[in-house]
């Protein structure tokens, strides 16, 4: 039986791209073995010299330059694109679900009480443009305004990192504070953190910053450590391999697009704050976050406030858009999701850890809140 040869024109220099490659490996291990060609190259590099004379069976590539697009097209081989640049039409492509990413970022910042928002993007990437549009839409739908920063085109002759940094500093300086900022990806978020440090803008108290990709090394080296959305690049790579397998088997797929939803938000110090003007409500929210897993209920909150239960719930609803009970449930549910994703604990053990006496109650609550069972949620990761 012929063993298919597949070229992976994907750089290995960042966490997202490495996740793509891991997803391809997952597919190959579960299905027919391929001979893999993985050249060492950087993002946007010239096409490898061997590609024009390569007699393989298929290609998975991040097609982000015209040169790569032309070289791949000339091979006449089946190809799947894992870039949003869309340099080569009429072929299937797999990318991040940028609407879901933007929604996660907005809700994360809004849950912390922010009412002022901004987006920092890089217009050379389609995914940055799409994330910007969706993020602004969510902000406006919630009744707020959103400032937007777009970096200059790095390919322009007059571009310099010094002038770009100066522009970014002026933008950050004029933003109203406190403010929640979504950066298009982690590298941009790290630049924002550096600017805040130089301008003595307190993070997260004055500016809470969230990135995208959850590059663990980059996020933990940032000061303070960066909150980031984890894209499911591994699933993206798996889906791309599946599509390529179908193409190499002769199936006509056309310009099929698959959008892969993000996994979760990894909360770190860059957003770990409460932008709530009411100090008593802020105190209660902080108490909930610290003690939700201890099995507290709304009655446990009343000694913290000089109000009746009705007034507390009214204040909560006005400021956060949800009741104290809903906040307790939300915090517990986030903890349950984290444990399902990252541990092998039984649902019974998880229930005890998050303050539920009965596994059955947690199971029913989880299904009601998420639309799926806890076991289905865990297996999806």
Automatic annotation (TrEMBL):
Superkingdom assignment: Bacteria
Keyword Transcription (UniProt): yes
Ranges for domain HTH araC/xylS-type: 282-380
Protein name in the entry: Xylose operon regulatory protein
One Gene Ontology MF term: transcription cis-regulatory region binding
Keyword match DNA-binding: yes
Pfam family, one: PBP1_XylR
PANTHER family, per database record: LACI-RELATED TRANSCRIPTIONAL REPRESSOR, XYLOSE OPERON REGULATORY PROTEIN
Keywords: DNA-binding, Transcription, Transcription regulation
InterPro entries in UniProt: Homeodomain-like_sf, HTH_AraC, HTH_AraC-typ_CS, LacI/GalR-like_sensor, Peripla_BP_I, XylR_PBP1
